[in-house]
Hints:
alpha+beta, eight-stranded mixed beta sheet
Amino acid sequence: MRPRYGRVTLRPLSELDSGAWRRIQAHFRDPEIAHLNGTPPNRMPLWLLKRVLKADARRTDRTTFGIYDEDDAYIGTIELYDVRGSSATLGIIIGEHSHWGRGYGPEAIHALLGYAFQELGLDHIRLNTFGDNARAQAAFRKVGFREVTRSRIAGGRIDVHMELHRGAWLEQVGQAASSSGAAAGRGVA
Length: 189
């Protein structure tokens, strides 16, 4: 299964080529991305990183995809983890700085939410991000996530908890479809 939305296509880790794996390693080593994720830059050799991520992807409580843009270039990863019952946690890394702030994150999230709510039948998706990551919060709000709580964590950073329920997502998707249909109808002469 390759979920799609807008310009992005999601591919299972099993379909990633060696170039994509090298980009994953570069993303995990990037100090700015590590800071946004609250982790130190990863220094694992590629063979070990690949082994660890593939083992995680085989878990029944996790689904991980590579994110590809409209030119079929690998740009990041997105996943559902802690899948339990009807809920899961979302994580995303748009690792290519050239794609930051250009709408790829929300499109990848839309693709994953379609998969989560329609294919997996989940009802509730949650996530955590840091208070100083305004770009991520904006992307999450754009697809319908709402902030639930904020809490101070070790090191003084603020942890922002957000969530989205299937009903709210379906309502937003329905509204977007009707407004795009109305806009398309207005363009017909």
